[in-house]
Design brief:
Pfam families: AMP-binding (PF00501), AMP-binding_C_3 (PF23562), NAD_binding_4 (PF07993), Zn_clus (PF00172). By secondary structure, the protein is an alpha/beta fold. 45% of the residues lie in helices and 12% in strands.
């Protein structure tokens, strides 16, 4: 039945009205569909996208378990089918509304209906769903894959790709083709072939009748209709390659496409000799749209295995899936696809499936082709061996036609087990009977290589024995002889007693490992740690919990904390407390304790971390060192260790500044995302553990926790929210003021998780994590998905305060509440009878910044620049940095008491380290990363270093290097601001740049100035400032010339050691570039400057290359003189000598470092 575009469009509008009438779909409606391979699938996809309904396309070939898994993953609310009864198996297990959609003829022949409007722009709709697809389920239950409209736009953008070697993308190259599409329409390749190609590339699509896809059906369709291309599953192509008639029909086509799995090499070789064969890979989870389908990814690991072409570096051959590999008990890894394909070539074999993971040898299951049976002795002689089983039932196949390996293994588990059981069992033999022993050995040897004519006198290895044959023979004989040598009759008691005596003698000091699971918990005495310990103690599968804490009195603290929170505190022998320094080797545990942990630890919950949002990332180095030591522990442990790392959502505080969409539950590598030293330290730890997990050192689960509230599982009388945190403090303060704020600023969105629930969630993640060898690192966000606003809980809090005080509590705007707090903070009284019960109140809350504290105290105008204002810099005064926004300060009872006694305003000490120090370290670390990745610690003092960047923190903390300090600050801020896209930071960087120029000018114009490291450092940093900012065309060159002059004044001897040598080595290449720009030979190309600075530290490979480049400059200079000279005899001789010398240097350099050039 031919269908025009107008008919198709009308059918889509008809289906939109049909969906609206029955479902009234919204943006959250998910509706599933199973049906035959007909046009309704494409119609339903577009109608769902227009109405907002998310259509789940589910293959009818999925198992019931697979269908239910997809329903659960997608939160499906209704089910559509092509006829009554099609979905009874689903609805029986998962009741929900169901409907039968109109037939194809009803949709196509429908009367014209009004156009269903769709008015969204691309930007509004790019993240709307086209449909839910799913993986094939070859390694387990299928997984849901969302296809967004933005991914469809990627396909449409193929029109924009320029030709490569005269070729365009396939869809564009073959536009206006007529395609027979035999692929299942729930598959992405078919959606592309049957929908995208028709709508975007003017293809005419031919769909098969609703009957099983087979080779004979394809042959009939190719005979009936004029077509020039076909889209055929690989399993059918493998069959067609064996049929001469089918090959002749394929030869009449211009193009044959296949997807969903690999075409067997033998079939591909045959078909490609008859027509143009193209293989599509990863259409659902691949190509450029994958980064729309999975927007949280920067890199997509396909888990495919490829083999490089031996001669053409651009070509790679698909070898199989990583999860298809069989790993034998001897560690050998085998890709079964090649052998399965080779077996399937045989005309008697329909399909083959290899198994054997964890066994000593591969076994094969054989499914015979039609017309062959296990009674066919000739066939059996050809294919039957000791590790082969011919099965009567068909294998399990995925909906797209590839082998469902795990499901096939499960279906034929008994047959597979019987192969190995037969090989591990053997006849009993009496070792004292020579004839029987001789016969047994000969039979075992014949069976090992399948050669019944093997004689006792034959050489085994000449007869075909290999290492596997030896292994089989050894197993057979060991089994037979062991059975014949069992203790018998009167000798048995004596032998048994002797064995027992020997065991008792040599095993008395071996302590058995405890049964059950041992868990290490760090930071158990904290708020979350206390509830984690309580959850672990209650878990019957946990045999021991080792609590590692820094405090010497952790046990006493833990008991008191448990009592305060109404938690268990009588742990018995199940819980052990040890003092540990995680940042030190072996955690400073005793040798015996550390060895005990190495032998039997299953899980480590790493919860210990300093919580301070004012510190820089380097202040957390001891915690990060603890993570490194934890990785070392896992690498030394006897058994694989699962690490559950308690991270924080602060690893991505600034995510929305540079990314679209929510923070993914995946590794965060954007160093600008954390925004604080605390968040950055958590991110560093995550990345370290992630790398270790990918290196198979450990298994990893990362739990990023957010704000945790008080417990709820056992009622409010059993534990409270930590009174030292901000919200309890705010409520206590509001109680004093008899006023509540109507909003909380940037904390107004409440997604808190009760602390006891969080502990249970984390425990479930620990014990329900993926334990397979291929388990990937897992990331989870422990935050409340159901968020509310502060205004929703405000009435309840107000009611409780009024009931507690018998006085009304006003609700004020946030700014009014702050003003009232500021006015009343000096008269606050303790809450309760005992003054000590008032642990915290909020006082001295500044509003919008009017400058730094130093400028406010001096009553001068502050420019509010960060990290230090210019007014304080000029006056050489300490600057804590301008405060921006509103924040709270907790005052402890002693300070409030002092306040009441003195009657003066509270003055808070400046934070340590200062905000400027924290900002400097943040900016400098990012600047260093722009050179060679994550900043490494400087080398051990006294050891040579050529990395001048290690000295920058020294200049920052020096009180005498103002020019270097301001230049470092300017350059690191301009690099950070540029990468982060922060205009305010870049503006502040330019002010610091001007300040640095001013300091340098003052230093240089003093007269009798000595060239010291700080001046050189300042000039070098200004050079790098210009590479980022480019304030003028020649600014970079002027700074470089200034640095060169200063180095020249210092002399080559000064440049042979220390910071001056590091900078000189760093600038040599830039000096070469500048000399090329100015067409001159620099003084640094002279013999003294090329030898003296390298007397202590030999030249590296790059230093030697720059020597060659300087020689090239000399040749060019002489050549210029030769062009402009009348008498060229002497100059020509000089030039010839220089060229020969330069060529010799270049040749020596290449030969010395050829190994590097080959990389």
């Amino acid at each position: 039945m031919p269908v025009t575009t107008a008919q198709f469009a009308n059918a889509v509008n008809f289906m939109c009205e049909w969906l609206e009438t029955r479902l009234s779909p919204s943006s959250t409606t998910v509706v599933g569909y199973t049906g035959p391979n007909d046009l309704r699938c494409s119609i339903l996809i577009l109608a769902g996208a227009k109405t907002g309904a998310k259509v789940l396309l589910c293959s009818s070939r999925n198992s019931l378990e697979g269908k239910l898994a997809l329903i659960q993953q997608s939160n499906c609310q209704a089910w559509l089918s092509s006829s009554e009864g099609d979905a009874q198996d689903i609805l029986g297990e998962h009741p929900m509304p169901s409907f039968v959609i109109p037939s194809v003829s009803e949709l196509i022949r429908a009367e014209p209906v009004p156009v269903y409007p769709y008015e969204k722009s691309f930007l509004d709709a790019r993240w709307d769903l086209l449909a839910y697809l799913h993986t094939s389920g070859s390694t387990g239950n299928p997984k849901l894959i969302p296809i967004y409209l933005g991914a469809v736009a990627c396909v449409d953008a193929l029109h924009l790709i320029a030709p490569e070697d005269g070729k365009r993308p396939t869809a564009v190259e073959w536009a206006n083709s007529t395609l027979l599409c035999m692929m299942p329409l729930f598959h992405m390749s078919s959606i592309a072939g049957a929908l995208y190609s028709a709508l975007m590339f003017d293809w005419t699509i031919v769909l098969p009748p609703p009957s099983p896809i087979s080779m004979s059906l394809i042959e009939r369709l190719l005979d009936l209709l004029p077509m020039n291309s076909a889209f055929i599953p690989p399993s059918i192509l493998n069959e067609m390659a064996k049929s001469k008639d089918a090959l002749n029909k394929l030869a009449a086509l211009d193009l044959v496409i296949s997807a969903g799995g690999p075409v067997a090499p033998f079939a591909g070789d045959i078909i490609s000799r008859h027509t143009n064969l193209q293989q599509i890979m990863g259409s659902t989870e691949g190509h450029c749209p994958i980064f729309v389908t999975l927007p949280e990814l920067n890199v997509w690991h396909t888990q495919d295995l490829y083999l490089a072409h031996p001669e053409i570096p651009e070509l790679w051959k698909f070898e199989g899936r990583k999860d298809d590999l069989l790993i034998l008990s001897n560690g050998m890894k085998i890709n079964p696809l090649g052998a399965e394909t080779q077996l399937s070539k045989h005309p008697a074999i329909q399909a083959a499936c290899l198994s054997g993971s964890g066994k000593f040898q591969v076994a094969a299951l054989i499914q015979l082709a039609n017309g062959f049976s296990t009674n066919d002795e000739a066939t059996l002689n050809l294919i039957h061996r000791q590790f082969v089983r011919i099965v009567d039932e068909p294998f399990v196949w995925t909906p797209k036609g590839t082998l469902a390996r795990k499901a096939t293994y499960a279906k034929f588990s008994q047959e597979i087990d019987s192969v190995y059981q037969e090989q591990s069992s053997g006849p009993q033999v009496n070792a004292s009977d020579f004839d029987q022993l001789h016969t047994t050995i000969l039979q075992a040897a014949r069976g090992a290589i399948g050669n019944t004519s093997l004689a006792a006198e034959d050489d085994l290895f000449q007869a075909g024995f290999d290492s596997l044959s030896v292994q089989l023979l050894h197993q057979k004989l060991s089994q037979a002889l062991w059975q014949s040598l069992q203790p018998q009759n009167e000798n048995s008691p004596g032998v048994v007693d002797d064995v027992r005596a020997l065991l008792a003698k040599y095993t008395f000091n071996l302590q058995p490992e405890p049964k059950g699971t041992r868990v290490i918990l760090t930071g158990s005495t904290g708020f979350l740690g206390s509830y984690l310990l309580d959850t672990l103690v209650a878990d019957p599968q946990v045999s021991e919990v080792w609590c590692l804490n820094r405090s010497q009195d952790a046990l006493q603290k833990q008991i008191q904390s448990a009592k305060d929170k109404s938690l268990r505190h009588d742990w018995g022998s199940k819980v052990k407390f040890h003092t540990a320094q995680l940042g030190l080797p072996d955690w400073r545990l005793g040798a015996a304790e550390y060895r005990t942990l190495l032998k039997g630890t299953a899980h480590v919950i790493h919860n210990a971390w300093q919580v301070n949002f004012n510190l820089s990332v380097w202040s957390f180095e001891s915690q990060i060192a603890g993570v490194s030591n934890l990785i070392q522990f896992c690498s030394e442990a006897r058994n694989p260790v699962h690490v559950c790392y308690i991270s924080s959502i602060r690893v991505a505080t600034n995510w929305s500044a540079t990314h679209v969409g929510p923070v993914p539950e995946a590794l965060v590598q954007d160093t600008a995302a954390p925004g604080t030293g605390y968040g950055a330290s958590k991110m560093v730890a995550e990345n370290l553990l992630y790398q270790a997990a990918n290196a198979d050192v450990l298994r990893l689960t990362v739990c990023r926790v957010g704000q945790m509230s008080g417990p709820v599982l056992r009622g409010c009388d059993h534990g409270v929210w930590n009174p030292k945190e901000w919200l309890p403090t705010l409520i206590r303060t509001s109680s004093e003021m008899r006023a509540l704020p109507e909003d909380l600023g940037n904390q107004d969105n409440i997604d808190w998780v009760p602390i006891d629930l969080a502990a249970h969630i984390i425990s479930e993640m620990v014990f329900n994590s993926d334990t397979s060898d291929e388990a990937r690192p897992q990331f989870f966000h422990v935050i409340n998905p159901s968020t509310i606003r502060w205004k929703s809980v405000l009435p309840l809090i107000r009611e409780r305060l009024q009931k507690h005080q018998n006085l009304p509590a006003d609700v004020l705007s946030f700014n009014s509440w702050i003003r009232k707090l500021r006015n009343t903070s000096g008269n606050m009284s303790p809450v309760g009878e005992d003054e000590a019960s008032t642990s915290n109140v909020m006082v001295n809350i500044p509003g919008r910044s009017r400058g730094c504290a130093t400028c406010r105290k001096r009553r001068v105008k502050c420019d509010e620049s960060l990290p230090e204002c210019l007014a304080c810099v000029r006056m050489r005064l300490p600057c804590p940095g301008a405060r921006t926004g509103t924040f709270f300060v907790h005052a402890v009872p002693s300070s409030s008491s002092s306040h009441r006694t003195c009657g003066s305003a509270l003055r808070l000490p400046s934070p340590q380290p200062s905000r400027s120090s924290a900002f400097d370290q943040l900016f400098v670390s990012h600047f260093v990363e722009s050179f060679f990745g994550t900043m490494k610690p400087p080398p051990t003092p006294g050891t040579p270093s050529k990395i001048w960047l290690h000295e920058l923190p020294v200049f920052l903390t020096s009180s005498e290097s103002s020019s270097a300090k301001t230049a470092i600050r300017a350059t690191s801020m301009i690099s950070y601001g540029t990468l982060a896209g922060d205009v305010s930071i870049k503006t502040a960087a330019r002010r610091w740049y001007a300040e640095a120029l001013h300091h340098l000018q003052c230093q240089i114009t003093k007269g009798n100035v000595s060239v010291d490291d700080s001046i050189i450092c300042a000039v070098v940093m200004l050079i790098h400032f210009e590479t980022w900012a480019g304030t003028s065309q020649k600014a970079w060159l002027r700074h470089l010339k200034g640095a060169a002059m200063l180095l020249q004044v210092a002399g080559p001897e000064r440049c042979s050691h220390g910071f001056m040598h590091q900078v000189f080595s760093h600038l040599r290449f830039q000096m070469f570039v500048a000399a090329m720009t100015e067409n001159e030979v620099p003084i640094f190309a002279s013999q003294d400057w090329m030898t003296i600075p390298f007397r202590i530290y030999p030249k590296l490979i790059f230093d030697q290359l720059i020597d060659v480049l300087f020689s090239v400059l000399k040749c060019l200079s002489i050549a210029d003189q030769l062009i402009n000279s009348d008498d060229d005899g002497d100059l020509r001789a000089i030039l010839d000598a220089l060229i020969q010398d330069t060529m010799l240097q270049a040749s020596q350099w290449c030969s010395s470092h050829s190994f590097m050039l080959s990389l």
